[in-house]
Design brief:
37 strands; alpha/beta; 996 residues; seven-stranded mixed β-sheet; globular
Length: 996
């Protein structure tokens, strides 16, 4: 990204009218009109903030017959995330993928996580690897073709080859690996991942060929043991959980009398735990003790109705408060047999056996949990096996195919780098990194939107990845490498060098589909599968009740000794460290994505930096003052880690929660090299187990808090104090009598996952401004998420955008009428009129308007030019920006609806078609905003409030609906549904306060 010019914190563009000399600012009406008479001279010279970038469009020479300029074409494809596939729709304009949308027919829930949407930016990233490298220098085509031919010949001749890949359920990759091992039994396969896959801990307690899924519609009591299933849900459909938990159902249509109650026991504050009905801080090292005692208690209820006392040999005991919480939670779970379940986070695989026994005690298996039968995978080794085989010369050639960056993020990085330097090693990756530098060869990898493939989702459905654009930088997919190794000619054929621009992986993907589905009409079935994006026929079959009964069998003398394999809690005075993937950049795969870097962490509120969680009491113990975050340096035996330390209510005492994913080579963000959590994790595990002395943590002050570092707000949310429903709909003079667009946001559902922010950014061409600009309070996001904590760690996330006020205070102060109210109830922006006086921002009580201080779009043109949505203006410098309810999507929905009406009368002249006003009315749900479409939790409802059958009308009619700052009388179009908790009456906090 092109750097922006330096400027002072309080400096503004010198051509801005608000910063002209005094004699020019004091104008009469006459002088104002005289000034305006200068016309083009001032526009071209004196006011560069009002200039527009000139572009020349080159039309098609021969365009596709069905292509309509400005109208998107959506193609079904998929992304592999967290070990499973996610079907998506790629919206393309004139051959350019612009944004990723959720696949609405997909049965495991609509919505799309922020990271999936942001992956579109990686496609156009100019920092991607573009050349085949040999020893760090570009290799000639003949040189690479000769090398690849020798690799393929080595495979056919029985040579020893090692393949390091990430964990995958891809049936296409599995079939190709099986073919390779049949041709050469000496090929060795290895898997590696820097962090466990979501759901892997519970999966560890099942045989390899058995999978599971959670039926959230049947679960009325859920206990999450350090399990953040609302963030990345590998267990089941999140919308089912939301429907079972909402007082009025998913669409606010019925009264839900038997709502789901959520309990959470965890050390950190996760998105799931922060929205639980009851939450208990338990450090990771003591979670095994808690789980064991919960099993003893529920087993005692079931077999002897006597509560067994904690075992005397336990390394640590529960406090009276924790024990009281455990008993009341256990009673509630036990009193709902067949409707209760326990979920386990991926960091605790040693507890999987105990958790499955708990679920058997609660009757969850076969009711809330369904077991599925999956095919067995090929035998494979670990990264340690990979390194050992290289050093022992058991492999002559090794391929690292899209395997991440193990030199940086594994505990064996230096050893791995030394081993790779001593053998014929080939690295395939989208970026040049520490691992590529350690290998002899580096191949640029294709983006998922550039390559064919077949993946499986958690249910086992085949999801089809089809390219929506030819490789921009000559990328190669792992499947193409495997296909080239298997070819008899020993050639690597890709979409780039194929005469028909069709990769050979296409034919392999189609054969994979035909073998699994076996349709009668293969061509028609394949086309339909690509259009839908997945095949329901390939889902894993369920186990029979007899087979299910064999898992987690419980007897009165059942042992729980498997829970004792955990590491002991740190000794007295030590700080316990917990390492978790970062909420914004994951395990590091999104650290080069500027969209994700600029998103604030949904718990700490920090962007463009690694942030850590700690309890307020521990924060003060380490030398922190007040509640403002501080810069923190953690030293270990051979290195250090720098983070922003944030005091978060609800974190377990003496626990520091550190993010993984930062550090290493990164062309997008500077200053993050010393934030490598993987290195610190390795050093701590090798030296002290899981604890460090407090004197190894040093705090430093930060500059004044800005949007880049947002401290926690510990106070009740604006909606917890109670209130009444909003007043009757305000209708200004001249308002349309057919459409009045409004929005309702349910704060019971919103978890602050940033999906709405990324969707808004992709749809509305919102540029990133960078860390320095955010530090000066100049973020451009049209949506921000305010966070309100309680002392116990409960979090209310409130998305705030332009409230579309019926009596908008911004409209009355704009001197050029740039912000106006439409007849359909929208507070619109006319960018061509805006002078950037910022009067509207000053007068907005919701602080929902953003000013474009610099031409950020031009600065990021190289990275985002091809990604921009042609239906939305690209704003240049010096204008005010804000949410407009995605008016372009609303108008497009109207056009499509009228087009469908015309198609219902083929060949009939339009003058003879008779339609009623009801026919012309847009059906509820046809018009959706980008944030609403992307929200995985269905927290945002948008529609025509004049339609009494619409979901937004029902939501706004509920007693818990209210507005932000209602005393101002601005009559906002966006309202909020107050949080609706479902507490256990026997477990209210006041009942536990007297227990120490």
């Amino acid at each position: 990204m092109t750097p922006l010019p330096p400027f002072h914190q309080n400096e503004a563009p010198q051509s801005h009218p608000a910063f002209l000399p005094e004699e020019e600012r004091e104008m009469t009406r006459r002088s104002f009109m005289k000034w305006m008479g200068a016309g083009a001279v001032l526009v071209g010279v004196g006011l560069p903030a009002c200039r527009r970038v000139e572009k020349y469009l080159v039309p098609y020479n021969e365009g596709p017959e069905w292509s309509v300029p400005g109208v998107e074409t959506a193609y079904a494809t998929c992304l592999a995330m967290g070990g499973s596939a996610r079907p998506v729709l790629a919206a393309c304009y004139e051959g350019r993928p612009v944004k990723l949308l959720p696949s609405l027919p997909y049965p495991d829930g609509p919505g799309l996580p922020a990271t999936a949407q942001a992956s579109i930016l990686d496609l156009y990233d100019p920092g991607r690897s573009k050349h085949i490298l040999f020893h760090g220098k570009p290799a000639s085509g003949d040189e690479f073709r000769g090398a690849f031919s020798s690799w393929s010949r080595n495979l056919r001749d029985g040579g020893s080859i090692g393949l390091l890949l990430p964990e995958t359920d891809s049936p296409l990759v599995h079939s190709m690996l099986e073919e390779i091992t049949r041709k050469n039994p000496g090929v060795r396969i290895y898997h590696d991942s820097p962090v466990p896959a979501p759901g892997s801990a519970m999966q560890a307690g099942l045989p390899q060929e058995v999978r599971f899924r959670v039926r959230f519609t049947r679960a009325k009591r859920i206990l999450a043991l350090d399990c953040d299933f609302l963030h990345e849900n590998p267990y089941g459909n999140t919308r089912d959980f939301i429907a079972a938990r909402s007082p009025e159902g998913l669409h606010y249509k019925e009264e839900n009398r038997n709502r789901t109650r959520l309990y959470a026991a965890e050390g950190r504050v996760s998105l799931t735990g922060a929205h639980a009905d009851h939450r208990l801080p338990v450090s990771p090292a003591r979670l095994a003790i808690f789980t064991e005692e919960l099993f003893r208690y529920i087993a005692g209820r079931k077999f002897s109705s006597r509560f067994p006392q904690p075992a005397p040999e336990a390394p640590a005991s529960l406090t009276e408060r924790e024990l009281a919480w455990l008993r009341r939670c256990g009673d509630d779970l036990y009193s709902h047999p067949g409707e209760s379940l326990v979920l386990l986070g991926e960091d605790h695989p040693e507890l999987s056996g105990c958790v499955w026994k708990l679920n058997r005690l609660l009757g969850a298996i076969g009711t809330c949990i369904q077991l599925l039968k999956a095919p067995a995978s090929l035998p494979h080794g670990t990264l340690e096996d990979f390194i050992r085989d290289i050093r022992q010369k058991k492999t002559d050639i090794v391929f690292l195919l899209d395997s991440g960056n193990p030199v940086l993020d594994s505990a064996h990085g230096p050893t791995l780098a030394e081993a790779l330097n001593g053998t014929e090693s080939i690295h395939l990756g989208m970026y040049e990194d520490e691992t590529s530098r350690a290998c002899r060869w580096h191949l640029p990898a294709a983006h998922p939107l550039e390559a064919w493939g077949v993946e499986r989702d958690r249910r086992g459905r085949f999801c089809y990845r089809q390219p929506v654009i030819l490789p921009l930088y000559g990328g190669i997919s792992p499947e193409e490498v495997l296909s080239g190794l298997l070819s008899t000619k020993g050639q690597l054929i890709t979409a780039d060098n194929s005469p028909t621009h069709l990769s050979p992986v296409y034919h392999r993907a189609r054969k994979c589909f035909e073998r699994a589905v076996n349709p009668e009409n293969k061509t028609a079935a394949w086309t339909e599968a690509l259009q839908r994006g997945y095949s329901e026929e390939t889902a894993y079959p369920p186990l029979s009740p007899q087979e299910e009964s064999g898992f987690g069998a419980i007897t009165p003398d059942a042992s729980v000794t498997d829970a004792r394999t955990h590491a002991d809690a740190p000794g007295s005075g030590l700080l316990e460290l917990q390492f978790c993937p970062d909420y914004t950049i994951g395990d590091g795969r999104w650290k080069r994505n500027a969209w994700m870097q600029e998103c604030p962490d949904p718990v700490t509120g920090v962007s463009w930096a690694a942030s850590a969680q700690v309890s307020p009491a521990t924060f003060r113990r380490l030398g922190g003052t007040g509640s403002e975050p501080m810069r923190c340096t953690i030293t270990a035996s051979a290195g250090r880690m720098e983070v922003i330390l944030c005091p978060i209510p609800g974190v377990a005492e003496n626990l520091v929660v550190l993010p993984l994913g930062y550090g290493g080579m990164n062309h997008v963000a500077e200053g993050q090299w010393n934030s490598n959590g993987y290195e610190l994790r390795t050093q701590v595990n090798q030296a002290n187990g899981c604890g460090i002395p407090p004197d190894q943590v040093v705090l430093h002050g930060l500059p004044e808090r800005t949007e880049a570092i947002q401290g926690p707000v510990v106070q009740p949310s604006p909606f917890t104090a109670g209130g009444s429903a909003a007043a009757a709909l305000f209708t200004p003079p001249g308002a349309d009598t057919v459409y009045q667009w409004k929005m309702a946001i349910d704060t019971s559902r919103c978890i602050g996952c940033n999906a709405c922010m990324i969707a808004c950014r992709a749809e509305n061409n919102i540029p990133v401004v960078g860390r320095d600009q955010m530090a000066k309070g100049r973020a451009l996001d049209w949506i921000r998420i305010d966070r309100y904590f309680t002392e116990e760690g409960a979090l209310t996330a409130i998305p705030v955008a332009c409230q579309q006020c019926g009596k908008a205070p911004c409209e009355s102060v704009c001197p050029v009428n740039a912000t106006v109210h439409t007849t359909e109830g929208l507070n619109a922006m006319v960018y061509a009129r805006c002078w950037g006086t910022r009067y509207c921002a000053t007068n907005c009580p919701y602080r929902a308007r953003r000013f474009n201080f610099f031409d950020y779009a031009k600065a990021s043109e190289e990275a985002t030019r091809l990604q921009r949505n042609p239906n939305v203006t690209v704003r240049s410098r010096g204008v005010m920006e804000k949410c407009t309810y995605c008016v372009q999507m609303v108008e497009r929905a109207k056009i499509r609806h009228k087009s469908r009406l015309m198609k219902e009368h083929p060949g009939q002249p339009s003058t003879t078609i008779r339609v009623t006003e009801k026919d012309l009315l847009l059906p509820d749900g046809e018009a959706q905003t980008a944030c609403q479409l992307a929200c995985p939790a269905a927290a945002i409802t948008f529609g025509n409030v004049l339609d009494t059958s619409s979901a937004v009308f029902r939501a706004k009619s509920l007693p818990r609906h209210m507005n932000l700052l209602p005393s101002l009388g601005t009559e906002p179009g966006t309202g909020y549904l107050a949080p609706a908790r479902n507490p256990n009456p026997a477990m209210e906090e006041q009942d536990l306060e007297n227990i120490h």
